[in-house]
Write a structure and sequence with these properties.
Layout: E1 13-17, E2 24-25, E3 28-29, H1 33-47, E4 51-55, H2 72-82, E5 86-89, H3 95-102, E6 109-112, H4 119-122, H5 126-137, E7 142-145, H6 160-164, E8 167-169, H7 171-185, E9 191-195, H8 204-210, E10 216-219, H9 224-230, H10 245-258, E11 261-263, E12 267-271, E13 280-284, E14 298-302, H11 304-315, E15 319-323, H12 336-347, E16 351-355, H13 357-365, E17 375-377, H14 381-387, H15 393-396
Parallel strand pairs: 1-4, 1-7, 4-6, 5-6, 7-8, 9-10, 9-15, 10-11, 15-16, 16-17
Antiparallel strand pairs: 2-3, 12-13, 12-14
The chain binds 3-phosphoglyceric acid.
3-phosphoglyceric acid (3PG) binds at residues 19, 21, 60, 149-150, 153, 357, 380-381.
């Protein structure tokens, strides 16, 4: 259901669930991509004369207020980007929130405090979620679900709230779905997926699903060491999920049977320690233990030959989906793999999608612009679960 299905919104109070879960360092927003991505829906609702109540989570507080997870800095940034004041209320539900919402005029916008300061938001008990959602629903007349990054979560503001008010998907959710459906239903081939990030175990579902659908899978980031170990190579002190070795061996065998290429790095950057100024060297991927750092060596990036080989695969691809950095891109010495990969995505003629908060933040931090990519998804877990073919609770309730 799209926003049109809600009818005239003039003077109606519309609650909008956004994903304003942005990275913060000492209270300063380091990447405002998710705030920007929320603006289309908010602008449209203001223009339609709605009274707009924004709700979101930030981080993972445990059901009680914590100053470092306050959404206040987000309200300030949202106001700057919107070019209009965005009020902020220090609670999500309660007398103060009701008064602030009651005082809104047509086109006014207010942001309520972090949903996850309330235990009902993320409770495993449906009754608790429902009770919290009822208090949220009492604040508005209609609900717009636009937090694509949380549609894979069964949480009060995502699922139960949508059942209590006339509800619709916002423009961001609609736009994300259109792009991701293109990948699941009719990807132009060759279709390449690049997976990075630290944990194989986070991506097990999506890897097994992708092996049935893609032509090539490029593996980088911390998870590559579990793949190298599964092939029998030593990885010294690099990240290793020893309990995943059999699963990974199974993937490698399955991919071979299906004719899917799984490309692993041929060289890696090994460092003496996990530190920005650590001594480091490029070594062949099958000789990590023979580096001059011996058993202490830690792989922190894919090597230049691998980055080049990955870039060549991308240049030949018609569709590319990328999730997860190739190395510790926050440290300059270990950013080359991620930078080379991002550059390759900007240069290919194929359709490119960057999925996930970390990958989006990585490309922006390395100086790339959003419009150099086909699409930058605001959802990390959500986009992976969608590609995995899972039913996402926050979308099911809107169907
Ligand atoms: C994300 O950052 O992927 C979303 O905001 C969801 O956050 P969560 O993983 O804490 O539910």
């Amino acid at each position: 259901r799209t926003i049109e299905s809600l009818g005239s919104l003039r003077s109606r109070t519309v609650i909008v669930r956004c994903d304003l879960n942005v990275p913060l360092t000492d209270g300063v927003i380091t990447d405002d991509g998710r705030i920007r991505a929320s603006l289309t829906t908010i602008r449209e609702l203001r223009a339609a004369g709605a009274r707009v109540v924004l709700i979101s989570h930030l981080g993972r507080p445990k059901g009680a207020p914590e100053a470092r997870y306050s959404l206040r800095p987000v309200a300030v940034r949202m106001g700057e980007l919107l070019g209009a004041p965005v009020g902020f209320v220090e609670e999500t539900v309660g007398a103060e929130a009701s008064a602030a919402v009651g005082a809104l005029g047509e086109g006014d916008v207010v942001l309520l405090e972090n949903l996850r300061f309330n235990p009902g938001e993320t409770s495993a008990d449906e009754q608790d979620r429902r009770a919290f959602a009822e208090r949220l629903a009492a604040l508005g007349d209609a609900f717009v679900s636009d937090g694509f990054g949380v549609v894979h979560r069964r949480q009060a503001s995502v699922t139960e709230l949508a059942q209590l008010l006339p509800s619709a998907a916002g423009r961001l959710v609609a736009a994300e779905l259109e792009v991701l459906q293109r990948l699941t239903e009719r990807p132009e081939r060759p279709y390449t997926v690049v997976l990075g990030g630290s944990k194989v175990s986070d991506k097990l579902g999506v890897i097994s699903h992708l092996i049935e659908r893609v032509d090539t899978l490029l593996i980088g980031g911390g998870m590559l060491f579990t793949f190298l170990a599964a092939q029998g190579h030593g990885v010294a002190s690099s990240l290793l999920e020893a309990d995943q070795l059999d699963t990974v061996r199974g993937y490698l065998a399955d991919a071979e049977k299906r004719g899917v290429r799984i490309v692993l790095p041929i060289d890696v950057v090994v460092a003496e320690a996990f530190a920005a100024d650590a001594d480091h060297a490029v070594v062949p991927a099958d000789a990590i233990e023979s580096s001059r750092f011996g058993a202490a060596g830690i792989g922190l990036d894919i090597g230049p030959a691998s980055a080049q080989a990955f870039a060549e695969v991308i240049a030949e691809s018609s569709t590319v989906f990328w999730n997860g950095p190739m190395g510790v891109f926050e440290m300059d010495a270990f950013a080359n793999g991620t930078r080379t990969l991002a550059q390759a995505l900007t240069e290919t003629d194929g359709f490119t999608v960057v999925g996930g908060g970390d990958s989006a933040a990585a490309v922006r931090a390395l100086g790339f612009d959003d419009d150099q990519f086909g699409h930058i998804s605001t959802g990390g877990g959500a986009s992976l679960e969608f590609l995995e073919g899972k039913q996402l609770p926050g979308l099911e309730v809107l169907a």
